[in-house]
Design goal:
With 392 residues, the protein is an alpha/beta fold. It contains 7 helices and 35 strands. Strands 9, 10, 12, 13, 15, 16, 18, 19, 21, 23, 28, 31 and 33 form a 13-stranded parallel sheet that branches. The protein starts with a strand and ends with a helix.
Length: 392
């Protein structure tokens, strides 16, 4: 059995998304990055992350045969085959970037020295998709849905589509067991539609692929779900979405538009809340990058919202183009809040104050209790680390 470890590298560029998880647990497409590697390699995948997060993840004893892989890489069959063929202490590189190494230990300094001096390096020349910035997640989501769809459904039979459902390109729609469908529209002409186990689509919802709906998630009546959207497990969604990823266990249960966005876990978006994803001037959009402590040009004309775990939006919240909100925030009130809001903030356009840590933990505990989940001591320690870092 192969021992494979996905290694968090340059993770600060992916905050606030990875404040509470390893890069390998980011959902993009249908699956998380770790789940993709597990499917391609048929092996258990372990995660090496920041020290304050590592208690969340088991890390086994390594051997000379251990494969260390950059967790930001989105796998494909050809790349996986090349990685599995690596010899001991051999490095796979792409465009002078580290991809993977087979060795007992991982040392950034040793790896960089080997690459700079071209010692025992193997070059990979085919195209590789990286998640280098937060906005790469929604930008690459559509093609990852299509890749994951093929990975999950190959040689499998979909459940039947009821006659009362309008379905376009039925061969490009896959329905898992337990899915509940009311009269709705499933248009897979532009890309695959995947409906996870025990998910539900209510009356008169419109779905235009590529779209993925996770296990036990619900799309409510009249919702409009446009291309390149992933709704992770245990979410409730209404209103209009376009090119959005909901990681899991988050709700947007009422009207309002969210576009070109990533929403973490345990978030709630209040009724009639909206985000802008396009400037009136049609200029390229800047978004906050924690790694450089500044706004960075995304090069994108469409970029909406990045929201960390446990953040809540009150009813009728308006968010400007390219907004980044950290973890455990409570944002509400009239007007546009600032386009970067650090973690553990309470307020809106009229001003922000630090969110009392104990109150934030109580809110998280109450929300999780409704889903029969428990906020563990490890999770609380992680949130306290974030609180201390973001409220210095």
């Amino acid at each position: 059995m192969q021992q494979i470890i996905l290694l968090d590298r340059e993770r600060e560029h992916l905050l606030p998304i990875v404040f509470t998880r390893s890069i390998g647990d980011i959902r993009i497409g249908i699956l998380t990055i770790r789940e993709k590697w597990e499917k391609y390699t048929n092996a258990a995948i372990n995660l090496k992350t920041a020290e304050y997060l590592q208690n969340k993840y088991t890390l086994p004893q390594t051997t000379e045969e251990t494969l260390w892989i950059d967790a930001r890489i989105l796998p494909n069959k050809d790349l996986v085959n090349e990685i599995l063929k690596l010899e001991i202490n051999q490095i796979l590189i792409y465009d002078n970037n580290f991809i993977a190494v087979r060795s007992k230990n991982y040392s950034e300094n040793i790896i960089n020295s080997q690459i700079q001096n071209n010692i025992n390096c193997k070059i990979y020349n085919e195209d590789i998709k990286f998640i280098k910035r937060t906005w790469d997640i929604f930008s690459l989501n559509g093609e990852e849905i299509i890749k994951d769809f093929e990975l999950l459904t190959r040689n499998r039979q979909s459940e039947n589509i009821p006659n009362f459902v309008y379905a376009k390109r039925r061969d490009n729609i896959f329905i898992e067991k337990g899915v509940k469908l009311s009269p709705c529209s499933l248009d897979a002409e532009g890309g695959s539609i995947y409906l996870g186990k025990n998910s539900e689509i209510m009356d008169f919802a419109t779905i235009k692929g590529p779209v993925a709906l996770g296990e036990h998630s619900q799309i409510k009546a009249g919702a409009k779900i446009y291309s390149n959207t992933t709704i992770g497990p245990h979410c409730k969604i209404a209103g209009e979405l376009n090119n959005v990823i909901f990681q899991a266990y988050s709700n947007k249960a009422h009207e309002g538009f969210i576009g070109n966005a990533y929403i973490g876990e345990w978030c709630n978006i209040g009724a009639d809340s909206n985000n802008s994803n396009l400037k009136n001037t049609y200029e390229k959009i800047k978004m906050w990058n924690y790694a450089i402590n500044s706004f960075e040009d995304t090069g994108l004309q469409f970029a909406g919202l990045i929201m960390g775990d446990h953040t809540k939006l009150g009813i009728n919240t308006m968010l400007n183009t390219g907004t980044v909100i950290g973890c455990s925030c409570n944002i509400f009130g009239a007007g546009f809040p600032r386009t970067f809001i650090p973690s553990f903030r309470w307020g809106g356009a009229s001003g922000l104050q630090i969110y009392d840590f104990n109150k934030a933990i109580l809110t998280a505990t109450n929300m999780m209790y409704r889903r029969d989940k428990v906020l563990s001591n490890v999770d609380i320690e992680i949130l306290k680390w974030i609180f201390d870092k973001e409220t210095f």
